[in-house]
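Final report, closing paragraph on structural work. Over the funding period we assembled a curated collection of sequence-structure pairs, and we close with a single example.
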Amino acid sequence: MAGGSWGVTGLVLFAVWVKVVVRTSDGDAVFIREFALIRRDHLSEEPLHNAGQKPEDPSSRTARSEEDRDTLWDAWGSWSECSRTCGGGASYSLRRCLSSKTCEGQNIKYRTCSNVDCPLDAGDFRAQQCSAHADVRYHGQYHEWLPAYNDPDNPCALKCKAKGSGLLMELAPKVLDGTRCYTESLDMCISGICQIVGCDHELGSAAKEDNCGVCNGDGSSCRLVRGHYKTQHASGKAEDTAVVIPFRSRHVRLILKGPDHLYVESKTLQGVKGQCSFDKSGQYQLENTTMDYQKLSDKEVLKIPGPLGADFTIQVQFAGGPDSVIQYIFYQPIIHRWRETDFFPCSVTCGGGYQLTSAECFDLRSNLVVLDQYCHYYPENVKPKPKLQECNMEPCLASDGYKQIMPYDLYHPLPRWENSPWTACSTSCGSGIQSRSVSCVEEDMQGTVTATDEWKCLYAPKTAILQPCNTFDCPVWVAQEWSPCTVTCGQGLRYRVVLCIDHRGLHAGGCNPTIKPHIKEECLVTVPCFRPLDMPPVEAKPLWHKQAIELDEEIVVTEEPNFIPDPWQPCSRTCGVGTQRRAVNCRVLLSFSQTVVDLPDDECKGTKPSSSQACYRMPCQKPEGDKDQGMEEKDKEDEELHEWEYDGFTECSKSCGGGVQEAVVICLDKKTREAAANQMLCVSTPRPPSLVQDCQMQPCPPRWEEGEWSLCSASCGVGLMSRSVACIRRPSLDSNSTEILPNEKCLEPKPIPVQACNRFDCPPMWENRDWGQCSTGCGNGVERRQVLCKQRLADGSILELPDTFCPSKMPAKQRLGSKEQRCPPQWVTSWSACSVTCGNGMQRLETVCKKQGEDGLYRMVDPKNCSSLVRPTRIRPCSLQLCKNSLRPSPTILAQRNVYIQWRKSRKVHLVVGGTAYLLPWTTVVLRCPTRHIRKANIHWLKDGKPLVKLPRMSVTPLGLVKVLQIGTSDTGIYTCIAGPAKEHLVLQVLSAEQKFPKLESSRLKEFSISLHGYDDIVQRLLQLKDERNKSSSEDTLDIPNIVVLDSQRLDDINSLGGTQGEQAIAQLLKELSVSLYETNESTLHHPEMAVYATQAPLLHKPNRKSHSTVPRSPVIIQSPLKAETVLSSDITVNAGTPILFRKSYSSLEIKCESLGYPKPSLTWTKNGKQLRYNSRIDVLPSGSLRIRSPNQSDEGLYTCTARNRLGSSSRSSWLQITGSRGRNCFQVVGAKGPVCPDRSNRSISSWRADPWTPCSASCGGGTQTRLVHCVEGTDGASREVERHRCLGTGRRPSNSRMCNVLPCASWATSSWGLCNGQCVGPSLAAQHRRVFCQDTNGTKVPSGMCSGLRRPVTTRNCSAEACAPQWRVGPWTQCTATCGRHGFQSRRVACTLTGGQALREHHCLRRPRPRSWQRCNTAPCGGAGACRDSTRYCEKVRQLELCTLPQFKSRCCHSCLDT
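Its predicted structure, as stored:
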């Protein structure tokens, strides 16, 4: 093989070993230490080469840059010879390491080369490498090797398969550099590794072709065309055109569903036609274009990747049966584009004119200008707007000075006449009239066109508004001569041809069909017929009868170019075989003028009809005696000039297993012995009989038998279709049955049994979910479902879209339920009117018994029908407008006496005023102040007695909330909420870096009337115990919420114990906190991250959770979630610890007392502190609950449930009061022994009375006022002060202190106004400024937030400034238009502006004279007659526009026009 070559691709073989020896120009050998390649998946991070690298000169091999010396590498060597001469190869460059150590980086780099297409006969590069092993024995014999493509595991290995045997071998571990990795990709193998190659033929490039075939394109050079075509079998045609696909189109896909058959016709730009028929599935070639055809059971699929090498016409051959449907889609190139023309000649010869450009439509294929309608066909084409420029600016010789005839510049075209389209012609023929409107319009700088006065357009003649149209004569019917009678005796028929002839003498159509002459009539031959009278004459239909009918069928000229045939000329012979001819032209109807225009044939689609045909009227009979004998011999000679003859056999109908072939009969010229072009020449001689013979009688080898494809499982998106595939063989030629063989007996590859189908996106459609359950268990309910708009994509995925994407109406989302069971009678409730007309009253729940009728409506029935149901009876308070002469309630703050402890880090914490909070640093805090009878915007906040200053981390919202971001120790303090006269505090403590809370000064606590009972030590001890328990266990056993909310009363009790008892109480509290996570239901009144624990508020129990544990703990009384404080039903169940108020008699009362603890606690009940005595009416249930049957006034009192075990005890109390007791109402008071029951039998009334407020302690910045509050009894004239507990039932105690003068002790201050020399804001107006700042009473500047409640003075005002007076501003003079003579002039810009440069209208500067805007220049006479020089600056344009041939330009541009 040495010295030879494998085809024109010019393979270059080179081997690379671990050490490569390269000979330099001086003969020295360079040893490369390493040979590194970059893997394909690492290519994007470290490219193999620089895309802009150019071939280096060999002399640069020894040169080293500073960078190369630093990296210890020698310079890169020259590029090697390309591995291929065409089709894309690889070239490499080497460098050596100059260090004794290993150098970083690669010593070899690659680039692509020879990126030109190979000739068609060059062959495949991988196939050439396989064929190179044909002279090597494998398994003792030679093979003809064929390439195996697209190996997914190792695409760069040379794998080949032996022809005929199916043997697959790896002949080489890697292919030659430049071999494609895959057939459908540009990626190439380099040194056995597949490297990415973009469409720009660069290594590592991610460039890809768009759908138009443009590398890195945006898809704008083509358009997507999709549509469908349905065959019309009823038309009587044998075939039809489905679609014409233009030259260079890409990604063509057609699907024919039905019994018909596809075939393709082509037509090149040179007019060469071709055709391709499909007989089986496979690949076909037509005009250098590959087509992939699939013949399935119920459809045909044609795919053409493209680009198409010619115009392809998809034809459909009808096969009968139902109509077929063809769906097609392809990307069509935009072959017609707009391009801008050169400037038209100037509108004037001197004095300043203008010239315009236009746009013309040209064909990209032929580069010829075509009609504009071809460019209008593509919506993507936007016709460029005309451009305008000045021209011939030199003054005219006859004018005195500068003649400015064009007051518009480059961006403002002249006014022009605008014409509307011509109306339709008044008649289609015979001379009509069409009109249009003409108006004068002008276009502003934004491109907006508006109508203007006509005088502005009078510089150009006004266009016509009327014109004649369709002046040609109307087509008329023209009847030709009658044919002979169809019979030779008696009565028959005769025919004639009737044509519609237009003004050109052509049969084009357009005549009135109602006045068309008839084409058939009866005729009578006066020769008697010798036949029975009952037999009518037989009508003969010779060939010309068919021609008459064909001529009668008109082909109408339309607005689409079509081939229009003229009528057939008479037959060239009166007997025997002759020829008819006609003219066939490509014509189009111009809609705007209603005229028919002839076009070149390549503008019409489809096949051009034949322009000639054979004709045969009758056989030539032997003439009688009066005929010339020479004529008889001539006719006989013509008839015997051609004869029929056998010419071989057709192909065998089968390739094996016995087929048949038929003899071919042709019409042969006796003289030349060549086949005649028209078989009608042999019509006068008898045709020889058909001959058939057997062929291919050898038995067939085993073959794959494929069943019919099943229907696609999906109509769109992506579906699957399957078929049966079996290896079969027919035992003998005489056998009609086949036998199934193992798959190994048939040649590979086995046909696929499953394939994807309908791989295109489905249209968006609605997806209905299942209906949900009925909203009611009886009667008329509602069922609901979810309706989504979804689209199934071609990859099988489902995309959820907005509802607007689905075209059809959305299905119903709800419907009436179909419950046949009617609802039983039930109580229907409604609230009664309030018991009072003003103030606070009560509402009662009124109930009526109703039953649902057949119409679904509820009607009132007898209450006895609802006797089995519990009748709801409830009351609720109602509040109307204030009564007259009543005092408006004062604002109140709903404080909560809670202690907040942050157990773990949390993002945000919500706190309510009235308590104390212990938080961890870096937590966001929101302080809430719930109020009544006051607007949220009127709430004020203080910190440590001073107004709260807005900081970047601290803000007050319009709803009265304080938000502090990422608190620190500096945020520790007392926050006060002020709502009118009411105020509440919250003490905030932040844990320091030493894990301690800072101590607040007692003086500060006393100043704000806050209890000195701090909880710092208790909280500090709780956190210590928690940390100790967590350390003793491998995991956090105290799984307590992030924020714990405790009742301050509980901590006060612990604080009062002290010593060992206090330590035990703290440990007990920690146990309760750990237990509560599993056995309590968190209150919904707090933040989800909080859990509430209190002594007076029992824990709410979750029944569905585990309620006992084996861990020893003291008793805890829990509650089931009940919400009734005033309970009204026949059988009452309440939790222990809930007050009970009875207003009527009830059947029974059950007070539940459930407890937790280990060992299990025992329960005891007491009444008013004494052991409860049980009887038949009062007993204890097995669950521990107390039951009282028919409670009455004797049962009033305080019932206490106590749970005890060896670790401790817990108790809960409920006060039972029955309003039937006369004037008696009892309250439980903290610190009092037993309940306090004020006696109302006395007429004296106890009430709170407050003294006047003391003066405010401060005039600003927040002071306080105090007053004394007494509990008095009696009337105003005779009252006395009594104990404070006597007034506990009369209402809320008035507050004894309030904030006053809360406005800050600061005000806005300003500096003096600055000079009036700022920026001009108008004619003679400027701006001056001053500084505004916030300062306290001592004159010290403070933050502006302290003055935020005061009105801020303005900082800027206008002032009068002479510097801002309008004035004329002139620009520099332009270059003179001539260098000598009296024609030169120059201009400059003159504008009215302010000092700062702002432009004004010119009337602001009219008080001063306007400077000149033009003047003459270079008025000195030009040199002698022999001097040749340019006298205008436009000579360069004159030379470009080739205007030097005109005398007026040549004299002004003598020097520039010398060498033209």
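The chain has eleven helices and 96 strands. The two ends are 63 Å apart (CA to CA). We thank the funder for supporting this effort.
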